[in-house]
Design a protein that fits this description.
3 domains; six-stranded antiparallel barrel; two-stranded antiparallel sheet
Length: about 170
């Protein structure tokens, strides 16, 4: 049996034998690394029905607008409108917390070296990845957006993180 799934970066149609479910594949078009889904993970997409906006929804809309004003980027197709209200509030709270810290580093990945042991950002900063997290970092790609806060590097489009120290 063959599993059919889209590339999360460029949208190309990809195929893999079902025995490769749960493993990483590279898109032939853009070289993006994609997790091959299990057959049970294929979901039916339903379109929502229109309902009147409640005060809660209005508040969440305001939070989304504030995040847009703060420059929250669309990350590899992930848009604020795709996120749940809980996720939007968590991102807003987290953003305000990191803003208050004033000690974060943010940017896109320029290079991943030494099987995930070193991540170099486009701004030139170099980050050594903790031994227990190199497998995760090695699965990331050039161009992925990340932020470093309190010794953890967060990949924003997948909300994954690894322990890091500045080189």
């Amino acid at each position: 049996m063959t599993i059919e799934f889209p590339c999360l970066n460029c949208g190309s149609a990809l195929k893999a034998p079902d025995e490769y479910a749960g493993k990483i594949a590279k898109c032939k078009k853009c070289q993006f690394k994609v997790l091959i889904p299990k057959v049970a993970e294929v979901e039916l997409v339903l379109e929502p029905i229109a309902v009147p906006e409640s005060p809660y929804e209005k508040m969440m809309g305001n939070l989304r607008e504030e995040l847009k004003k703060m420059g929250f980027p669309d990350l590899k197709g992930l848009k604020l409108s795709d996120l749940s209200d809980e996720d939007v509030k968590a991102i807003f709270d987290w953003g305000m917390w990191t803003y208050g810290l004033g000690s974060s580093d943010q940017g896109s990945i320029d290079e991943i070296k030494y099987d995930g042991h070193l991540v170099v950002l486009a701004n030139g900063s170099r980050w050594e990845v903790g031994d227990g997290d190199t497998y995760t970092a090695d699965g990331w790609c050039e161009g992925d957006e990340v932020i470093v806060v309190n010794g953890r590097m967060y990949r924003l489009d997948e909300l994954e993180s690894v322990e890091v120290t500045k080189e």
